Amino acid sequence: MRFAGQIHASCVAREGEGVLLLGPSGVGKSDLALRLIDRGFCLIADDRVDIADGIARAPSRLAGLLEVRGLGIFHLPWRVEAQLVLAVELAPPSERLPAPRRHAVLDLPLVLLEPGGASAAFRVALALEAAMGRVACHAGALAGARDAA
């Protein structure tokens, strides 16, 4: 049975492919979402994400809203929904070449990423490309995720 419910997370998407940003309050989910939006991703939800059948949506009262710490809450362009394809747990740096993992509840490829690094947004974009099979990851968190096209 697939998960249905609301979780504390942020979600962005590129071309309808959703990336769920997970971690405790204050870890940098909204900041990383903002940097991904700057790289061409689209906001799906910030702070709370409704999930049903692998589809992410914003709760209606939060739709299009993103908190920019130190500035306020902004209404940004957003998409109604996205098919989730990747989960990113924001955490301190882990091992250099971690074994592939899956989110236990959502059954998505799961990568751990330090959110404050200068390359964090690029690494999320690269992880999405690997999860979708558009680039090959030869060793590490997304090794064998899908065969690169």
From TrEMBL:
Entries under CDD domains matching the protein: HprK_C
GO-annotated molecular function: ATP binding; phosphorelay sensor kinase activity
Biological processes annotated in GO: regulation of carbohydrate metabolic process
Residues of the HPr kinase/phosphorylase C-terminal domain: 6-75
UniProt-recorded name of the protein: HPr kinase/phosphorylase C-terminal domain-containing protein
Source species of the chain: Acidicaldus sp
